[in-house]
Amino acid sequence: MNENLTVVGGGVIGLSAAWRAARRGHHVTVFDPEPARGGASWLAGGMLAPVTEAWPGEEHVLSLGEESLRRWPAFARELAEEGADPGLAGHGTIVVAFDSADAGHLDILADYLRSLGRDVEQLTGREARRLAPGVGAVRGGLHVPGDLAVDNRKLLTALFDACVRRGVEFRRERVESLDGLGPVVLAAGAWTGRLHPLLESAVRPLKGEILRLRPRRGCLPPPPYTVRAMVEGRPIYLVPRADGELVLGATQYEAGFDQAVTARGVRELLEGAERILPGITEYELVEIAAGLRAASHDALPYVGELGEGVFAATGHHRNGLLMAPVTADAVVAWLAGEPPPDEIGAATPARLLEKERV
Amino acid sequence: MNENLTVVGGGVIGLSAAWRAARRGHHVTVFDPEPARGGASWLAGGMLAPVTEAWPGEEHVLSLGEESLRRWPAFARELAEEGADPGLAGHGTIVVAFDSADAGHLDILADYLRSLGRDVEQLTGREARRLAPGVGAVRGGLHVPGDLAVDNRKLLTALFDACVRRGVEFRRERVESLDGLGPVVLAAGAWTGRLHPLLESAVRPLKGEILRLRPRRGCLPPPPYTVRAMVEGRPIYLVPRADGELVLGATQYEAGFDQAVTARGVRELLEGAERILPGITEYELVEIAAGLRAASHDALPYVGELGEGVFAATGHHRNGLLMAPVTADAVVAWLAGEPPPDEIGAATPARLLEKERV
């Protein structure tokens, strides 16, 4: 034990892996020009919601997400024991529909989840509005009580602090080559494709804009649930924070490595949010931001050995925060030569080789 | 000469007055917690456009604005001679109309301006779009060639630097009382009402939100003119900057001293701007901000002696940048015991006493 480990990337995946490895006695070095704050996880909404993200045909994503969700409470508790509480909230999710097309979409989702034995409750418009006061004229909804949410910025700060306390070394620089780094975890999000030939065309940036709002005096407070909806075909979510802030996300574009906040993105998010929560018009718009998710060729991440001493932990798409605990556990198992969590098997980067062969 | 002068407020009015007075040999002290950057002028669009702001019944505002506009080129030249060019742009204004109601509004404005002998050119929709490529499906327009625009941030920086070079002393604090300050100019914008009983109910904050955008690669560049329009009853303007930036303003609310950027304000500005310039959707949204204009009880500012040794230079509403030169000249004339510019007469605070008497 007490081996060295290099982690490329200081977002939620890299910091989680670094912390867990350092806790097991490894000497860890994290390379990131701006750890914690520089990437997609700093901007995220923080929903830990595998069920409302589920869709027929993506069972592996659901299973992996649910497995990670099961690991979240212990992960958060252990992090809190090291000094900083990441702010896990168990307020559940409501998905609302505004027209018959959206309501039909919810029916499909509800049937699918029931067929898998998942706990969902269908709501009339009136029931949805009773659970989430302030929500607009909805036609119906789904209530998913088991979802969690985490304040992503508290979490990243807590992870960073825990890493520092555990002796993790931070190098604020970019990694150009893996030569001589020893065992290394590639967790550089959308930029990971630049680090390994097998990932080069497999990981791509998926731009997202996200806003942060805050009720002004006299405004209706945010709903006590995470509220999701499709508005004119665009998925929108509103995640309340314990401190009163409301996170509104997120657009989704293929725009290369461009990280500019666009006029269109902000306008569409605000319009969608007004449909869901009419009172949001009077909220203060505190922050506008854009970041790059790491998308994979399918909806699953790449978590597993890429080659001798090189471990991929990337391509988490919209699920980086959700899947951080199970991914970090897979890294630790790899370092110890133990078998990884069962559900991570589907995320093996070996499927890229199969894909190439086909 | 070489008397002391205190200026309360380091926005465009206060800095202009301070610079001009220091140039004449006065020893000037400016009080402002955040000179240049802290107030409404830092956020402004920088239109110097008295004609397109004109409206029947507000002839005094038009005359005063035009008089100040005439003083602008020399003001800018003298400032440039002291070291920093404020970036005066002579690109004129186009006002566009999207429906028959807006077009009717433009006809009234054109008739009115012609009756006053002002130079305006009525445009068909096609002509308007030829002058300002990228403008949406407009019904008609007005071209006002004599308007100017100034980069407000360059201007404020230039004024601040010129003040420093002329020995103006800056005290980064709020003024609570005028006792013992000697001759003093009250130029604290929306906050000026707190400094003198006569202004207390006469100057009020008028909130405005304003955005700054920038074309991304592949975007149509901003139009070469300032473009103004009414969109669903809300006045919108787009002011191009020499460096490619486009300023989009401005909302107008009575909201006390609240300076929060609201979701509604941003959404309405973006929607309006998309109507005027459809390609703006792909622009980067660089900045969202809100500030407080100083509104008066009529549309004129208060410029003149309030009492022994106390001079008002406030209440400029949407016209602070435009009216800075004539206001500064009025301050200098007051200090020298000379008559002020003729057109400033209508702006005398003495009209508040008449109002009280009625």
Automatic annotation (TrEMBL), chains A, B:
Its EC number is 1.4.3.19. GO terms for molecular function: flavin adenine dinucleotide binding; glycine oxidase activity. The keyword Oxidoreductase applies. InterPro entries: FAD-dep_OxRdtase, FAD/NAD-bd_sf, Gly_oxidase_ThiO. Keywords: Oxidoreductase, Thiamine biosynthesis. Pfam families: DAO. Residues 6-334 form the FAD dependent oxidoreductase domain. It catalyses: glycine + O2 + H2O = glyoxylate + H2O2 + NH4(+). It comes from the Bacteria. The keyword Nuclease does not apply. Pathway: Cofactor biosynthesis; thiamine diphosphate biosynthesis. One of its GO terms (biological process) is thiamine diphosphate biosynthetic process. GO terms for cellular component: cytoplasm. Coiled coil: none annotated. PANTHER family: GLYCINE OXIDASE, SARCOSINE DEHYDROGENASE-RELATED. This is glycine oxidase. It comes from Amycolatopsis saalfeldensis.
